[in-house]
Amino acid sequence: NGSRTEKDVSNLVVMGETKRIALVAHNNKKTELIECLRQHRDILSKHKLYGTGTTGSLVEKELQIPVTKFESGPLGGDQQLGAKITARELDILIFFIDPLDSHPHNSDVQALLRLA
Q1: Where are the transmembrane segments (predicted)?
Q2: What pTM, to 2 d.p., does this model score?
Q3: Domain 14-115 has CATH 2.70.50.60
Q4: Which class for 13: exposed (0-12), middle (13-18), buried (19 or more C-beta within 10 A)?
Q5: Domain spans of the chain, in order of start
Q6: Secondary-structure breakdown of the chain: helix, strand, coil percentages, each rounded to the nearest 5
Q7: Which among 42, 78, 91, 101 is annotated as catalytic?
Q8: How confident is the model at residue 106 (pLDDT cuts 50, 70, 90)?
Q9: Nearest in space to 15 (alpha carbons), one of 114, 90, 76, 72
Q10: Residue 101 designated active-site
């Protein structure tokens, strides 16, 4: 019938004009992420950006856009972003994953992806 239940409505995220965007990239994908973000710099500069330590620092340096930085992924940054997602304090997660490389913090990555 197309009607929404109360649960459906409570799960909707109301986003304002300014989005809260998290940026994450595995080491072998950081260059690719920067190239992609460079193409959309003007759009990204209008939003609030977050990132894990190394990725956030690289984005700030290369794009000259402020980024709120958390710890590096293996040091808890993925978990910090996960907490922001759970608290509905992030609207978008952009994650450039390297599926061909093993990651010692893979369980954190998988948890982050499940939350997103």
Answers
A1: none
A2: 0.75
A3: no
A4: exposed
A5: 14-115
A6: 50, 15, 35
A7: 78
A8: low
A9: 90
A10: no
